[in-house]
Amino acid sequence: DILVDGQLCDCDVVVNCQVGDPVPLQVKLTNWSKHSVGPFALTVMPYQDYQNGVHNYDLQDAITFVGSNTFYIDSVKPTKDSVYFGALLFLYTGDFYLNIKFHEDNCSRELPLSWLCLPSVHIRATEPV
């Protein structure tokens, strides 16, 4: 589950926020398998989609993280969950997306390096009223 500013996100939701206000981000990973999973890393990468096949990930002047954009997860037991909190600060107006990936952090496994990608989250940053 992904919550941005307290709002549950899916691929059809656009979350509106104001430039200059910290926007809380919460990612909850639930392990529905019969075995523990991990270790791996959760990475949040903001980008802009120019609607022509180009994604701009070079946004250090437009978005900053309050804290880290990468969280390390040691292990999640069966039927348990792990929740990670962060915040984003938008410095300019625009439509932004969050690419959220779980990366395998254990060389002994045969999973690809980036094995789980959640649907992109759409955030629209607007001027304060």
UniProtKB/TrEMBL annotation:
<dbReference type="GO" id="GO:0005802">
    <property type="term" value="C:trans-Golgi network"/>
</dbReference>
<feature type="domain" description="Trs120/TRAPPC9 fourth Ig-like">
    <location>
        <begin position="16"/>
        <end position="125"/>
    </location>
</feature>
<protein>
    <submittedName>
        <fullName>Trafficking protein particle complex subunit 9</fullName>
    </submittedName>
</protein>
<dbReference type="InterPro" id="IPR013935">
    <property type="entry name" value="Trs120_TRAPPC9"/>
</dbReference>
<dbReference type="InterPro" id="IPR058568">
    <property type="entry name" value="Ig_TRAPPC9_Trs120_4th"/>
</dbReference>
<dbReference type="Pfam" id="PF26283">
    <property type="entry name" value="Ig_TRAPPC9-Trs120_4th"/>
</dbReference>
